[in-house]
Amino acid sequence: MLSRTADHLFWMARYMERAENTARMLDVNYQTSLLPQSADAAVNGWKGLLSISELSPDYASRYGEIDARRVMDYMVSDERNPSSIYSCLMAARENARAVRGTLTTEVWETQNQTWLEFQRMLRHKTFQKDPGEGFEWVKFRSHLSRGVTVGTMLQDEAFHFLRIGSFLERADNTARMLDVKFHAVESEFFGTGSMGTNGNGNGKDQEYDFYHWSAILRSVSGFEVYRKAYRNVIKPEKVAELLILRADMPRSLAACMDEVVNNLRQVANEQSSDTLRRAGRLQADLRFGRIDEILATGLHAFLTQFLERVGTLGVGISRDFLVPVAA
């Protein structure tokens, strides 16, 4: 396969996954904003959303103070924001168009129709009239894109590059979301046993706790999964364990790395051995890790290192398989 073709497929999948992740975070923030809360808590929620995508400086330089409506518009329809849903869906469609001959008709039509329908929704101000409906639509179209890919494409190199792009992007987003949301509780998290009486352990904060951790779980479709897996009250350590180490949780770091490694093996070449080794080592750390060991050194430190390793892995994949970035 030509490296340019692999590059388009890889980024088509990444951008589609990124659009879904952005919609998930916006939806949870929007739903949370409808609950009774202080003005500072509401602002912090929108700040956290911008921090996940590392967009706080860009937003501040253009819009100044945090405003819920401006943040929503910035993350949904701003053409100048490379992580907005608009930019992601457009980039996914353009990458798909560039490799139209490699995709099945169903995959191409799904991408193309998603972009055309999104433009229609913007014209009709769907995301302003009913944000929840708009975000659900974005998630559905992403699910449809993955389903059509699995259901219609030959499982050859093209298919594997699509899967690598999807799950590398998902791992990156889940780690960023966890890091930012746990930082909303305190500057570092070593487990609830390390918190004092003014932390999350007192009765006053129990209601906040439930909505805070529920929001994290709902952002990755994990609320019902958590109830099924743990059958008890929502605890931060269990939320972290579910989203980091549980390979049977589809959006966990462990599940994502399993998919990345399995698909990397299918496209491995003579120059990709180091990249595959790095991916396998990261997979092993998650497969055999324990949440108490992770929390003993601090969750932020673990997630920061994970993001650095995923970033290095992405660079390695680009170097070994994709179009080299011009200096």
Short description:
73% of the residues lie in helices and 0% in strands. It has 327 residues and is an all-alpha fold.
What does this structure look like?
By secondary structure, this protein is an all-alpha fold. The chain contains 16 helices and no strands. Helix 1 runs antiparallel to helix 8 and helix 1 (3-33) packs antiparallel against helix 10 (206-219). The protein is globular, with a radius of gyration of 20 Å. The model is unreliable at 194-204 (pLDDT under 50).
- What characteristic shape results from the CA principal axes? globular
Helix content: over 70%
Which structural class is indicated by helix and strand composition?
A: mainly alpha
Query: Which strand-content bin applies to the residues?
Result: under 5%
Distance between the termini: 24 Å
Instruction: Outline the low-pLDDT stretches.
Output: 194-204
Q: What does the average pLDDT come to?
A: 88
- Taking all Cα atoms into account, the compactness measure Rg is 20 Å
- The tally of beta strands, per DSSP, is 0
- How many H/I helices? 16
SSE pattern: HHHHHHHHHHHHHHHH
- Sheet of most strands: none
Keywords:
327 residues; mainly alpha
Explain the layout of strands and helices.
Layout: H1 3-33, H2 39-52, H3 56-63, H4 68-76, H5 85-98, H6 105-123, H7 126-129, H8 131-152, H9 157-183, H10 206-219, H11 223-230, H12 236-244, H13 253-267, H14 273-287, H15 291-297, H16 299-321
Helix pairs in contact: 1-2, 1-5, 1-8, 1-9, 1-10, 2-9, 5-6, 6-8, 9-12, 9-13, 9-16, 13-14, 14-16
